[in-house]
Amino acid sequence: MSEATSSRASVRSQTLDRALDVLDVLSDGQPRSSQELATASGLHRSIVYRILRTLEDRRLVSRTAEGRYTLGLGLLVLSRTVLGDAQAELQDQLGQLANAVSATAFLAVPQGREVVALVTVEPARHRAAIAYRPGARSPMDRGACGLAILSAQPARPDERPEVTWARQTGYVRTVGEVHAGLTEIAAPVPLGHGSAAAVAVVFVSGDVDETRAAEEVKSVAARMSKPTEIWEL
After folding, report:
1. How far is residue 130's CA from residue 132's CA, in Å, rounded to a whole number?
2. I want to staple 108 with a disulfide (CB 3.0 to 4.6 A). Which of 5, 90, 145, 173 is the partner?
3. Other CB atoms within 10 A of residue 175 CB
4. How many helices (H) and strands (E) does the chain have?
């Protein structure tokens, strides 16, 4: 080994390198057990287990209902500035929603116990639209987006009534839970392997036909949940 090669190797993080190996194995979209990941990456299972715990805490991996691991939605948050064509498609669909409802539309994904706005679009002809920026966060258990995401998960005895109701109606409506005076209407976007995002609109209470808004939000969520290159990141 040359002196230059040895110098580069000495400043690398072995732990980070191993974590990237695990993520690389999962990049083909196939859920795997910790043992399968250990075999594929050539690492000891105990090492892979510690890596997975850390990645799971950061929402970079998630577990399916069967306990297998797959890439997590936290990667979408990290990659929101490099979504490329997927970003354009998301903006197009959200733009149609925003203009149909005359309210700011956005897509949100879970990250830990929070929900993060990934892409936001304001309506083209509505001067009083709410400015809602990518990266905006809200608690998972407050606001329509978080509750919509929870409605895509198995029922829990301690869940809010809105979550239970959303499984029947397909959407959640909240008022003033994240920002005073603002109404949110959101619908879950199932992404497979038990994970979900949420598409939503936010507006000043009383400014929008809420019945139509709910139908438009559900329609866009249904289109987004279909297999598409948007989620093949």
Report:
1. 6
2. 145
3. 12
4. 9, 8
pLDDT per residue over 60-78, tens digit each? Answer: 888 887 888 887 767 666 6
Q: How far apart are the C-alpha atoms of 230 and 233, rounded to whole Å?
A: 7
CA nearest neighbour of 199 among 138, 144, 123:
144
157, with CB counted inside 10 A (0-12, 13-18, 19+), is exposed
Q: Which helix (H) or strand (E) holds 121?
A: strand 114-121
| H or E segment to which residue 71 belongs | strand 69-71
Token pair listed for 107: 């897509």
pLDDT tens, residue by residue, 123-158: 987 666 777 777 788 899 999 999 999 999 889 999
Among 144, 145, 97, which Cα is nearest to 123's? 97
* Helix/strand/coil for 152: coil
What is the identity of the amino acid at 200? Answer: A
Phi-psi region of 206 (alpha: psi -120 to 50; beta: other; left: phi over 0): left
Question: Which amino acid belongs to residue 67?
Answer: G
pLDDT in tens, 154-202: 899 999 999 999 999 999 999 999 888 899 999 999 876 667 889 999 9
